[in-house]
Write a structure and sequence with these properties.
Helix content of chain A: over 70%
Distance between the termini of chain A: 15 Å
Radius of gyration of chain A: 22 Å
Order of helices and strands of chain A: HHHHHHHHHHH
Strand content of chain A: under 5%
Oligomer: heterodimer
Structural class of chain B: mainly beta
Helix content of chain B: under 10%
Number of strands of chain A: 0
Number of helices of chain A: 11
Structural class of chain A: mainly alpha
Largest interface: A-B, 61 and 53 residues
Largest sheet of chain B: 5 strands, mixed
Strand content of chain B: 35-45%
Number of helices of chain B: 1
Distance between the termini of chain B: 59 Å
Order of helices and strands of chain B: HEEEEEEEEEEEEEEEEEEEEE
Radius of gyration of chain B: 22 Å
Number of strands of chain B: 21
Chain lengths: ~350, ~250
């Protein structure tokens, strides 16, 4: 007799959920780590906006010491502060991985936390290279981009450890309705990463080769190469956010896990467009003749970076929640249970 | 439904490989087998002039140094636009073309750059390729000195208060190399590296003199950090003092 392939919904719910159970402490800890990673992004943004990337010339030591706190004044407070927060986030990410391996039976989840640890370590190495190679824009841009990617990974881990993720979705979207949402949310992720790379490249090239740095690249060259493509790409990003948010809010507002990210994306888009315009004024129009970073420049550019990171993270959440809630009612499967279905 | 595997790693790889080149280290010291030139003092001439600023005096930019208690607590004037009675200071003037293609002797005494009051003194300086630059820290504040050249090696040195001088040389001629302290982002100086000794910096009254020049036809350039470069062709006769007055204007900004 061949074993008949049964559908998981034919099985007792307890059996299906046995692969992993909700652990409130673990979930809130992962949430805390994701928030810490967000604060780390802000700390990194403060370094670049204050042109303080080389205030501490050595790495991994700071002024020759691994543990001694230097005088936290001037650019040192931004650069060394960023290093301290980064070390804390690295440690917290390792704790997330160890905790996951202790309490979480999902293999892919264990793998994801290990990947997060590897990513955080690699990110630290990129930060060190940035200092040792005297802030080459390619490495600094990769460091900025990977930092936001790691924030998204940690935010996703927080979602995967939430109670709602471990329970069956009560509301679903028919596969044919989910398809355009999924297609466009993945497209949005692609455009957002491109936007992130262009924005980071602009910031770092401007700081290194533009007016605050060596002044070897004319302003118009930096603006034409990085900023105008960033602005052009923002139109695609804005269009996709509008499409996704309005579609979710109008057609699937009954699903809170989709409605929440969609609403946040809409609000953050408005804030981000305003911040982008303000950043253009303070960085390009006024910043050309500034002899030091102003409070306005630092506040606006760091806020633009931070809101950009939140948009990226909410898009990741929207994408994985759309996957989670898609499928005909009998087919809806969280992807962590697939192997069990295949072997049932 | 599953999340498409490999998206994030691909995105990260894309970010890492985004097409920007790292700044490359510069070639080594310039060497020349040509014999050193000697200028006959009996025929040597000079170039002198005044750098003026046309139009209303630009507003003095004030520096906020309050983020380090070891720096002056009150706003300090920046050195970017130093205009006195229509005369512009901190303009680097040098002979750009016309000199014989011979090697000029390099002075062994260093040019001194001090860090005092959380600013570089002088703000604009010139030296010859291979001539030492001696960097002092007379402040009670700690500094780092970071140069940003395109034809010379780049470096970033920490210099705590009381530390011994930092000695650096620039092997290749290059104009307007910014020097920056990343601990105090308002601190900025410009180093101009020449293959010859014919350069000067306009003083507070806009005046400059380039002495001991062999007679000939020259192109003289004047560079300001914000207004850019102007050039002028002139002839220096034997024992003659050629005049080279430059006028910068607000519209050039």
């Amino acid at each position: 007799m061949h074993a008949t392939r049964r559908h998981p919904y034919d099985r007792p719910k307890e059996w299906v959920l046995s692969s992993s159970s909700y652990n409130a402490a673990q979930h809130y800890f992962t949430l805390f780590v994701a928030i810490a990673a967000f604060l780390l992004l802000i700390a990194g943004g403060l370094v670049t906006s204050n042109n303080a990337g080389l205030a501490v010339p050595d790495w991994p030591t700071s002024f020759g010491s691994l543990y001694k706190l230097p005088k936290m004044v001037g650019g040192v407070k931004f650069e060394h502060g960023h290093r301290v927060v980064a070390e804390i986030v690295g440690l917290l990410t390792i704790i997330v991985a160890v905790w996951t391996w202790l309490v979480d039976k999902r293999r892919w989840m264990r793998g994801l936390t290990l990947a997060a640890v590897a990513g955080v370590i690699f990110q630290g190495g990129l930060g060190g290279l940035t200092v040792l190679k005297l802030t080459p824009p390619a490495i600094s841009t990769a460091h900025a981009t990977l930092g936001q990617a790691m924030f998204c990974v940690l935010a996703a881990i927080a979602v995967f450890t939430s109670r709602s993720w471990l329970e069956d979705p009560t509301e679903k979207i028919l596969r044919k309705d989910a398809k355009p949402l999924l297609r466009h949310s993945w497209m949005l992720l692609g455009f957002l990463f491109l936007q992130l790379i262009l924005g980071a490249a602009f910031r770092h090239v401007w700081t290194k080769w533009g007016p605050p740095g060596s002044n070897r690249w004319p302003v118009h060259k930096i603006v034409h190469t990085f900023l105008y493509p960033h602005i052009l790409n923002s139109l695609f990003v804005a269009g996709l956010i509008l499409y996704l948010s309005l579609r979710v809010i109008s057609k699937h507002s009954n699903i809170a896990h989709l409605r929440r990210p969609a609403t946040w994306l809409l609000l953050l888009l408005i804030v981000q467009l305003l911040l982008g315009a303000a950043a253009y004024v303070v960085r390009v129009i006024q910043g050309v003749n500034e002899v030091q970073p102003t409070l306005g420049l630092v506040a606006v550019t760091v806020a633009h970076l931070a809101v950009g990171a939140l948009i990226l993270a909410w898009t990741v959440v929207l994408t994985i929640q759309t996957h989670r809630h898609s499928g005909d009612s009998a087919e809806v499967l969280p992807f962590d249970r697939r192997p069990e279905v295949a072997t049932a | 439904m599953t999340i498409r595997p490999g998206f994030l790693p691909k995105a990260i790889l894309l970010a890492t490989l985004s097409g920007l080149g790292c700044s490359k280290s510069q070639p080594g010291p310039q060497t020349s087998a040509t014999p050193a030139i000697t200028v006959d003092p009996a025929t040597a001439g000079s170039i002198s002039g005044v750098v003026s600023f046309a139009g209303p005096r630009p507003k003095t930019i004030m520096l906020d140094m309050s983020q380090d208690p070891s720096c002056p607590s009150k706003p300090q004037p920046s050195e970017v636009f130093v205009v006195n009675d229509g005369k512009l200071a901190n303009v680097f003037v040098y002979v750009k073309e016309g000199l014989p293609s011979r090697r000029f002797p390099v002075p062994s005494e260093p040019v001194v750059l001090d860090q005092k009051g959380c600013r570089y003194i002088p703000h604009m300086l010139g030296l010859m390729a291979g001539q030492p630059l001696k960097i002092l820290n007379s402040d009670t504040a700690d500094h780092n000195v970071h140069n940003m050249p395109s034809k010379n090696p780049q470096w970033n040195e920490s210099q705590m208060t009381g530390d011994p001088p930092v000695l650096k040389t620039f092997p290749n001629p290059e104009v307007m190399i910014p020097l920056q302290c990343n601990q105090h982002p308002w601190m900025r100086a410009y180093v101009n590296v020449m293959s010859h000794p014919y350069f000067a910096v306009s003083a507070a009254d806009g005046k400059f003199t380039i002495p001991n020049l062999p007679p000939g036809d020259y192109t003289v350039a004047a560079v300001h950090e914000k207004f850019g470069e102007q050039t002028m062709k002139l002839k220096v006769g034997a024992k003659a003092a050629a005049k080279a007055d430059f006028i910068f204007a607000q519209g050039q900004l």
